[in-house]
Specification:
By secondary structure, this protein is an alpha/beta fold. Among the domains are: 161 residues, Substrate Binding Domain Of Dnak, Chain:A, Domain 2 (Up-down Bundle); 145 residues, Rossmann fold (3-Layer(aba) Sandwich). It is 51% helix and 10% strand. It contains 28 helices and 16 strands. The strands form four sheets. It has a six-stranded parallel β-sheet with strand order 6-5-4-7-8-9. Helix 24 links the parallel strand 14 and strand 15. The structure holds FE(4)-NI(1)-S(5) CLUSTER with Oxygen and iron/sulfur cluster (SF4). FE(4)-NI(1)-S(5) CLUSTER with Oxygen binds next to helix 13, helix 20 and helix 24.
C-alpha cells in the first residue's frame, strides 16, 4: 500500500517518534523538508571526498581517484588541476577552508559577545549587567587585570578590551593558551601552531589556499591546526567565558526536550540559532505581565518559549527553558502548525524554514544584520536597546496567534533532562564548594570504576538517520563505563533519548560508572552547553591534567572525542582543535579527504606523532565507540592503570566508601 510505504520511509529517517510523526505530517501537508531533499539531491561523489577545487576561474577541477585499478606514478602525475595542483593539495586546501569557515563562525560569535560585554561594562547596553562576579574576578586574575578597589564594571572594561584585542592580534600567542598544560603549550610551540591572533590565522588559511600559494599538504594542514586552536582556545573560549559572566555560569537545572514542549493553547515562540545575546532578553520579555496579558487578549492562555539548536542549549543551561529540538527538527517544529514565530539569529538556520512557514501561519523573524533570509521578517537586534527589540519580537508572535489554522498536531513526546554542567559546576559537584576539584573524577578513573571520558558532540546530518548515531554511540560508551560530556545537537539527542537524568545511570551505564553517578547524583551524560562551549571540555581536560595522576598532558588522559552525525564546518574546526589539543577524535557520516589517501593517512596516523591526538573516520557509531574505548584503554595502559579495572569488584564496602 502506498501509505504504508511512506510510514516505513519516515521511520528510517529518525529514531525519534515525534520527528517521525512530523515527517509524516509534512508529507500529508505537501511540505518539502531536508529529509525529502536528501533523497533527491545525491552528494557529488568527487566533492564529498574533497577532490574538487574551485579556487580559481580555470576550474572547477576534479581529481577523482582512479576506479578499480592501482594507479601508476605516471598516471598519478597527470591527475592534477589545470594549475598543476595535486589531489593532496586540493584535499588539504578544501579541508582547511572548512576549518576556516568553522573557526570564523565561532570566533565572530565570540567577537559579538566581547563587544556587547564591553558595551555593558561601559553602561552603554541597558538591560545587561555582570551576573557572575566570581567568574569575572577569576578571569581578571587569569588575564592579569588589576582588581584592587575597582568596581566590577571597571574590571570588566579591561577584560573586554583585552579579549577583543585577541581577535586582531598580530604577534605573540593567544592569552588563553596559558590555560593548557605546560607540555601542551610546548607541543604547540614545537609544531609551530600556537596562534598569534584569532583572525590572523583564519585569513592566512584563505591566503594559503588561494591559487598558487601553499602547495604542500603538510604545511597546509599545520595552518589548519593553528586556526582551529585559535577557535577552541580563543574565539570559542572568549564566547563562553564572557557569556557566563554576563548571563551567569550554568548550574544544574531541570528541563524538558522534544516537540511535545509546544503548547496547544499558548503563543509558541521558538528561538533558534546560536547567540544568547538577544534570546536572554526574549526570555525576559516573554515573562512581562503586559505581554502575558496581551497574549490572553488574543485568546491564548499564555506565552510558551522554547529553543532550537544551540540557542536552545544556552537558554536551557541558564534558565531551564524547554528545547523543541535539534538541527533536523527545525522544519518539523513549524510543521506542527502551532508555532507563532521562529526567531533566528546566526548559524545552522535552514533557508527552507521560510518556505515551510508559508504552508502554515508561522512568522520567521531574522534578527542578525549578518543573517538575513528573503521572505522572513527582519527585526534587527539593537544591543543598545535590546529590550525594545525583544518586545517587538514577542508582540509580533502574539499578534500572529489568531492566524493559526486548524491543521495542528503537536506530538506528545517530551523527555526530562538535567543540564547545566559547566566546567565550574562539575568542579563543585565533585569536590565540594570549598575544595572544588576534579580529584574524585581522576581517582575514579585511576581506580577503574570510570574507564575514561568522552566528548561526544556535533550536528545532525540528513544523510544519516536522525539521532541514531548520537544515541547509539553514547549508549555504547556509558555501557562500557566511559562518562560522556556533550554539547550542541548531540546533547539534545541524548536528552531526547532519556540519557540525561540521574536514573539513566542505573539503566544504561556500566556498573562502575553507575556507582559513581549514583554516589554524586549525576547523569552518566553531562550537558556542557552549546557548540562554543566545547571550550568547557578543553577546560575540563586541562583541569584533569592539573589534578594529577593521569599524566602531564591532555594527550596522556584516557579521553576521546567524536561527532557521529557531523555536517557543519564548525564541527571540523572543533574536531581539529580537539585533535590539536591531544585528543583522539572520531567522525561519522563521511570523511572530506578520502580523495587523497596520503592526506587522510597524515591526519589519521602521522598526526599522533606530532600532536598526540589524531583523527579517525567510522560511519558505524558502535564501531566508532569501540575505537574510542580502545584508545582510552591504550592510554590507561600507558599510565599503568589498566590493571586497576580488573581489580574493581564493587562489593558493599567499596560502595560505602564511595
Ligand atoms: O553549533 S551541533 S547542527 S546547532 S553546528 Fe549546528 Fe551542528 Fe547543531 Fe550549534 Ni554546533
Ligand atoms: Fe583548478 Fe588549480 Fe584553479 Fe583549483 S586552483 S580550480 S586546481 S586551476
Amino acid at each position: 500500500m502506498k501509505g504504508e510505504g511512506k510510514m516505513a520511509e519516515a521511520k528510517s529517517k529518525s529514531i525519534d517518534a515525534a520527528s517521525i510523526k512530523m515527517i509524516e505530517k509534512a508529507a500529508r501537508d505537501g511540505v518539502n523538508t531536508a529529509f525529502d531533499r536528501a533523497e533527491t539531491m545525491k552528494p557529488c561523489p568527487i566533492g564529498v571526498v574533497g577532490s574538487c577545487c574551485k579556487h580559481c576561474g580555470m576550474g572547477p577541477c576534479r581529481v577523482p581517484l582512479p576506479k578499480g585499478k592501482e594507479e601508476t606514478p605516471e598516471e598519478k602525475l597527470k591527475r592534477r588541476g589545470i594549475c598543476g595542483a595535486t589531489a593532496e593539495t586540493i584535499a588539504a586546501r578544501n579541508f582547511i577552508r572548512m576549518v576556516a569557515g568553522g573557526a570564523s563562525a565561532h570566533s565572530d560569535h565570540g567577537r559579538g559577545v566581547a563587544e556587547l560585554f564591553l558595551a555593558a561594562a561601559k553602561g552603554e547596553a541597558s538591560g545587561y549587567e555582570i551576573k557572575d562576579e566570581q567568574k569575572l574576578l577569576q578571569l581578571a586574575l587569569d588575564l592579569g587585570v588589576e582588581i584592587g578597589e575597582r568596581s566590577n564594571n571597571e574590571i570588566a572594561v579591561d577584560i573586554g578590551e583585552i579579549c577583543l584585542a585577541e581577535f586582531g592580534k598580530q604577534a605573540g600567542e593567544l592569552l588563553f593558551l596559558r590555560r593548557a598544560p605546560l607540555k601542551r603549550q610546548e607541543v604547540w610551540q614545537r609544531e609551530g601552531v600556537a596562534p598569534r591572533g584569532i583572525d590572523r590565522e583564519i585569513v592566512e588559511i584563505m591566503h594559503r589556499t588561494h591559487i598558487g600559494v601553499d602547495q604542500d599538504y603538510r604545511s597546509l594542514l599545520r595552518q589548519g591546526v593553528r586556526a582551529a586552536i585559535g577557535d577552541g582556545w580563543g574565539g570559542s573560549m572568549i564566547a563562553t567565558e564572557l557569556q557566563d559572566i554576563l548571563f551567569g555560569t550554568p548550574t544544574p537545572v531541570l528541563g524538558k526536550v522534544n516537540l511535545g514542549v509546544l503548547e496547544k493553547d499558548q503563543v509558541n515562540i521558538i528561538i533558534h540559532g546560536h547567540e544568547p545575546l538577544l534570546s536572554e532578553m526574549i526570555v525576559a520579555a516573554a515573562q512581562e505581565p503586559e505581554m502575558v496579558e496581551l497574549a490572553k487578549s488574543k485568546g491564548a492562555s499564555g506565552i510558551n518559549l522554547s529553543g532550537m539548536c544551540c540557542t536552545a542549549n544556552e537558554i536551557l543551561m541558564r534558565h531551564g527553558v524547554a528545547i523543541a529540538g535539534n538541527f533536523l527538527q527545525q522544519e518539523l517544529a513549524i510543521t506542527t502548525g502551532a508555532v507563532e514565530a521562529m526567531v533566528v539569529d546566526i548559524q545552522c538556520i535552514m533557508q527552507s524554514i521560510v518556505t515551510v512557514a508559508e504552508c502554515y501561519h508561522t512568522k520567521i523573524i531574522t534578527t542578525a544584520p549578518k543573517g538575513r533570509i528573503p521572505g522572513a521578517r527582519h527585526i534587527e537586534f539593537d544591543e543598545h536597546n535590546a529590550m525594545a527589540s525583544a518586545r517587538a519580537i514577542v508582540k509580533t508572535a502574539i499578534d500572529n496567534f489568531p492566524n493559526r489554522g486548524s491543521n495542528i498536531e503537536i506530538p506528545e513526546e517530551q523527555t526530562y533532562q538535567v543540564a547545566g554542567f559547566s566546567h565550574e559546576t562539575i568542579n563543585y559537584l565533585l569536590g565540594g564548594v570549598y575544595r572544588a576539584s576534579y580529584r574524585p573524577l581522576n581517582d575514579n578513573i585511576i581506580n577503574g570504576r570510570i574507564r575514561g571520558l568522552a566528548g561526544v558532540v556535533g550536528c545532525n546530518n540528513a544523510r544519516v538517520q536522525h539521532n541514531y548515531g548520537h544515541v547509539e554511540m553514547v549508549k555504547e560508551l556509558i555501557k562500557n563505563d566511559v562518562v560522556v560530556v556533550t554539547t550542541g545537537c548531540n546533547a539534545i539527542a541524548c536528552a531526547m533519548a532519556g540519557l540525561m537524568v540521574p536514573e539513566a545511570a542505573a539503566q544504561y551505564a556500566g556498573e562502575g560508572l553507575a556507582s559513581v553517578c549514583e554516589a554524586v547524583g549525576i547523569p552518566p551524560v553531562l550537558h556542557m552547553g552549546s557548540c562554543v562551549d566545547n571550550s568547557r571540555i578543553l577546560m575540563a581536560a586541562a583541569a584533569m591534567v592539573k589534578d594529577g595522576g593521569l599524566g602531564d598532558d591532555i594527550s596522556d588522559l584516557p579521553v576521546a572525542g567524536a561527532a557521529p552525525e557531523w555536517m557543519s564546518e564548525k564541527a571540523i574546526s572543533i574536531g581539529q582543535y580537539f585533535v590539536g589539543s591531544g585528543v583522539f577524535t572520531v567522525f561519522g557520516v563521511n570523511w572530506p579527504t578520502l580523495g587523497s589517501p596520503e592526506v587522510t593517512e597524515f591526519l589519521f596516523k602521522e598526526f599522533e606523532n606530532m600532536y598526540g591526538g589524531m583523527w579517525a573516520f567510522e560511519p558505524d557509531p558502535i564501531k566508532g565507540a569501540h575505537m574510542m574505548i580502545e584508545h582510552i584503554d591504550k592510554k590507561r595502559k600507558a599510565l599503568g592503570i589498566d590493571k586497576a579495572r580488573e581489580r574493581v569488584l564493587f562489593d558493599m564496602a567499596m560502595r560505602r566508601e564511595l
